[in-house]
Structure formats: C-alpha cells, structure tokens
Amino acid sequence: MAFETQVSGDPAGALSPIVFAKVRTRLIPFMFLLYVVNYLDRVNVGFAALQMNKDLGFSPEVYGIGAGIFFWGYLFFEVPSNLLMERIGARRWIARIMVTWGIVSSCMMFVQSVSAFYALRFLLGVTEAGFFPGMILYLTYWFPASERAKAIAQFMTATAIAGVIGSPLSGALLTMHGKMGLAGWQWLFLVEGIPSVLLGFVVLVYLTDRPEQAHWLSDDERAWLVATMQRDRASRGTGAAQHSTLSALASPQVWLFALIYFTIVFGFYGIGFWLPQILKNLSGFTDFQIGLLAAIPYIVAATVMVLIGTSSDRTGERRKHAAFALLTGSIALVLSAGTTQPVLALVTLSLAAAGIWGCLGPFWSLPTAALSGTAAAGGIALINSIGNLGGFWGPSMIGWVRQATGSFTLALLALAIAPLMACLLILSLRPPSVHRGGVLLEGGRK
Known about the structure:
Largest sheet: 2 strands, antiparallel
Radius of gyration: 21 Å
Number of helices: 19
C-alpha cells in the first residue's frame, strides 16, 4: 500500500508534524497539569515549614528528615507500581495514584508529632510511587527517541511551574492562619490536596492508554504513529535492553543512570524543600512576600528547561546539553553560598534552579533511548526510585548542616558538589545513537 511504503521509506513522514502536533496538544498540557499538582503536593511542606516547624517545635534536622523520608516510600514501591501500570494501563493506574496521594496530602493537616510527620510523609511517597516514572514510560509510547527530549522537558516544566503557581498560593494560604480554628499550614495541606483527588477521576475519562486506541487521530494518522513507534523500538537494535525487567535491573548502565539521577535529585530537592526558608533567612520578608519571591527561580527554570530540551532535540545531542546545565547549576550554588544580599541570592538561586531543572529533558532522553519493551517499565522505575533517594539525602544534609552551623552557607557549598558530580558522570557516558530522519547521530553511523 502507498501509505505503508511512505511509513517504511520515509521515517520522518509527511504526517510527522501533523501527528506529533496533535499528540502534544492532546497529552502534554494534561500531563503537565497532573504533574503540577503532583509536585506541589510533594514540596508544599517547604512552605508549611515556615509556620509548622515553630508551631510543632520541629528542629531543622527533624524537618529535613521528614521532608526527605517521602522518597523511601518511593524506593520500595516505585518498580512494582510501574510494572503494574504496564499491565493494567496508564489510565486506571494513574487515576488510582492521584486519588490516594491527594487524600494523604490533605491528611498532613492533622500532623501533631514528629512520628506522625514522618509516617505521613513516608505514606505520601508510597501513594505517589510510580507517577513520575509512569509518565516518562507513557511518553515512550507516543514519542520516538528523536522527539522525546522536548516532550519530556515540556512535561517536566510542571515542576518549575508548580513553583510559580504554588509559591504565591502557598504564601496566601499561610495568611489564613486562625480561620475556622486551623493554622495557615493546615489550610495549605487541606486545599492543595483536593485537586489531585478530583483530577484522578478526570484521568479515567481523558487519558488514552496507547496510540492504537487514539480515536482522536484519523485512521491514517493513528496507523502512521503506531508504525513509527514500532520502527523506533526496532531501530534501537541490540543497544537497547528489550528482553525483560530482570535484564534492565541487572544492567550496569541502568545503575549508572540511577547514580547520575541521584546526584541530580540531591540538588533538585535540596533547593525545592529549602528555598522558602533560605529566602526568609536572608530577607526577613513576610510569608506571602516569600511566596511571591520564590516563584522567580521557577519561572527562570521553566523557560530554560524548554530551551535546552528543544536545542537537544534539534541537534540530537544529549550529554553535553545536560552536563553544561549541571555545571551552571553547581557554579550558581557556590555563588549563592557566598552572598548575604537577598537580590543576589535570588539571582544565583534562579541560575542554580535553571541549571539543575534544565538538565532533565536531555538526561531522561538517554535511558528512555537505551531501554525498550518490558525492560523500560522496570528500568525507568529503578532509575527514578534509586535516584530519588537524593531527595532524602539532599534536604536532610541541609537540615543537619543548618542545625550544626546556624547558617545555610556550608550547606549550599556541600549541595553544589552534587550537580558537579552529575555533570562529570554524564560526560563519562558513551555517546548514544539517536535516530533522526533515518540518520544515526552522536555515536552511531549511517
């Protein structure tokens, strides 16, 4: 058939811009919204701490451990969750995840002790486990390797936009202190958990599991996309782990990706969980003013993420894009440690956020190109779950150093080591092969 000849003979295809534009328009904004509420419920404890720590008598060390213990719940349940999504389908499994994490997030308003704080943060990790790697896996169903960095970057800008939206919102909710007998931090947890529950039910109606089921595409468009994704999986050849979950979990390459992601996340959540308190410490502004100021680094990060992801897809290059962003983040953290001026601190922390957030699109394009089939579900989940332990150690380290020294200076210097290590580890990777229009780029030959 003429259509089949076009698909196999012209990998780019005349339908390529039309189909991918439709897929992006249908999926990315909705996935973006889901990730905004996900990230907001995960890190809103950073704003709650402006009042909660004083109300409940939590020390910096207690807060740091409680903020980070979330990721131990992730560690134990992430791989099983992703494997279940592969079997059950994204629509039903993502809906389940969102409803349960929204309920637990709202229940954080009832915390009155250290043990309850630790327990609910751990349970939040358990209920959220599988959401992010599930979304990354889901993108591999719809976008070939050559289109993936931009798609991932567009999706993951939600973490930055969550800061843009959530910072002023959280600051405003803290001003409700005393309303109906609730503290401001209790209002914050209650209100910000509800959208996750509601959106969980929307997922059941809106999300499409696979391209084969995409009735919002025409017959020709759907057939072209299915053929394109089949060819993308086949084109990775022996370089991709295609056989089983065990083959991915036993792969040294997967564990190296996990180590790299650990160092990225170490800095990522070190900033995310402590940014409000760092700005408060330097400026003495009100909680609402801190909410407005804290949005600025996330605005910069969101912009840079899309620019780097687009550039990475255009050139087909991943490692250097990610490494340069991480090096920028490391240098900016060092500079932020050396200033006591609020404006300079805001500038340097914005650069640090831009660097660390900016590496995410190119980075996640590397393991998703190296894994396929069932191995992708387990491998991506393992990388994310091990890597996310950096979300425990980064915030905890800052809490320990802050409590021991009384300042954030040494903590920020120590934090700067993590993105520098990630930069060096990414550069040590063998350049991957990326297919664009039938041509192998960066490490392959055609």
